[in-house]
Design a protein that fits this description.
The protein is α/β, with parallel strands linked by helices. Helix content is 37%, strand content 19%. The relative contact order is 0.14.
């Protein structure tokens, strides 16, 4: 008797989704990489019933980058409700969703509010679930530096930073989906924690980028005011294996 399980990855063609799909397939699982381009749209509900039929678990890594509250909050709320409805009909045993460390403590930025709303929808769905909250990805660190550059100087947010590699996020998501639902939040982060300024300066040094990096008190993270620990886990997280230097060497 085959031990293969059907896993549906919503957003299965994106950065995290494609890596998660590859890992699960390599482990011998039956995986459906679901996205609007494949006829599965969690926002509209199109194709969800067919996609989730017979599924052991669904992993939701779908995303929409918007800072418009009227766009992004309905996107995550509606998608999560549609997934839950289809999941209940299909008898899905584990709903895994990728979220962000700190969303329960941050509400000034619409995108973070939207992710918090997504978490609430999953918790209220009635499906067994695990919410995997990750810190920022190494893959986005260049964009973080660029987004905080003013007149050629990187103005680092005044807080701690503990980024994680996308490969580690995908591995943990795949393992989580194959395990028992926690019905709780799992925080994950990279192995190294340091002030934003320190981490960004080291990244720029590795990249051969001469921009200076400074920290000014009160500097927000993409418009979100933060404290020292806003973007890092407050309890002991599950750690990825890859540090900044190792990730940079690979990429």
């Amino acid at each position: 008797m085959s031990s293969s399980k059907k896993i549906v990855v919503i957003g299965g063609t994106g950065l995290i989704g494609s890596k998660t799909v590859a890992l699960l397939r390599a482990a011998g699982q039956e995986v459906l990489a679901a996205s609007p381009s494949s006829g599965v749209n969690a926002l509209t509900g199109e194709g969800l019933d067919q996609a989730l039929a017979g599924a052991h678990a669904v992993i939701d890594v779908s995303n929409l980058m918007s800072f418009d509250a009227d766009v992004i909050i309905p996107f995550f709320e509606t998608s999560s409700r549609n997934l839950a409805e289809a999941g209940r009909k299909a008898g899905v045993g584990h709903h895994v969703v990728l979220s962000i460390v700190g969303v329960d403590r941050l509400d000034a930025q619409p995108y973070l509010r939207a992710k918090a709303a997504q978490e609430k929808a999953v918790m209220a769905s009635g499906l067994p679930y695990t919410i995997v909250r990750a810190t920022q990805f190494f893959e986005f660190i260049a964009g973080i530096a660029d987004g905080h550059t003013v007149d050629g100087t990187v103005q680092a947010p005044d807080g701690l930073f503990q980024p994680i590699a996308a490969d580690d996020v995908s591995r943990i998501l795949a393992e989580t989906a194959l395990g028992a639902p926690l019905n709780a939040v799992l925080d994950i982060a990279g192995p190294d924690r340091a002030p934003f300024e320190t981490m960004l300066r080291e990244y720029l040094r590795l990249a051969g980028d001469a921009r200076p990096v400074v920290t000014e008190r009160g500097t927000a993270y993409f418009g979100q005011p933060i404290s020292e620990t806003s973007l890092v886990p407050l309890s002991t997280p599950r750690l990825g294996a890859t540090g900044l230097k190792g990730w940079f060497a690979r990429t």
